[in-house]
Amino acid sequence: MKACDDDGDDDDHDDNDGGGDDDDDGGIGDDGSGNDDDDDDNDSGGSSDDGDGGSGNDDGDDISGGDVMMMMMRMKRRTHLTGAYTNAKCLSRQGKKVGKILVAANLPEGKALIFSKKADVLFSPRSRIPDLETLPQEIHCERTGVAVMVKKGSTLPDWWNPAFRTFVRSGDFARFCMESSTKYNYQVNCLSDDAILKMAQADDASAAYTGK
Question: Which residues does the annotated region (Disordered) include (predicted)?
């Protein structure tokens, strides 16, 4: 399941498409250490997927069809990786009641919970997980957009956000998006003209308020 990053918290974050918040579970890596090990998902990007181990599904659901999101919500035991934006807040944001959730320290632990039948489904940013069947339905976790996650107290947003806004207002971001769509033969979601206008208006209002 595709999921986009943004848990709606107020931690420091960088703009990369005009909005969005970062995850509050601490760090880029799944273990909360800030390291992106081979066994951990990197959730600093934008889209991600949800995986499900068929061997852990004892509710008798057909995971190859039907409403996958409804199936996930019917399952009583879910697990997700710590530090990943595919978390309890994202599930709650789907407008469905969420039952018991187990937090796995890393991918091997999450898979072990599935194989031992302590969990029915693994909610993960990965599109493919060895030995598990992934579910195709797209899930959106964001409220305002995708963001680059940084550690609390990082000074990166101090220079990244103004630089990104300059990149957008110059028109270079729009050109970059169009060229990327052609280069990779894939429809890249770029900022709309309305979003760019609102960003410019917000910058102008901020500059007028601070006198800069």
Answer: 1-66
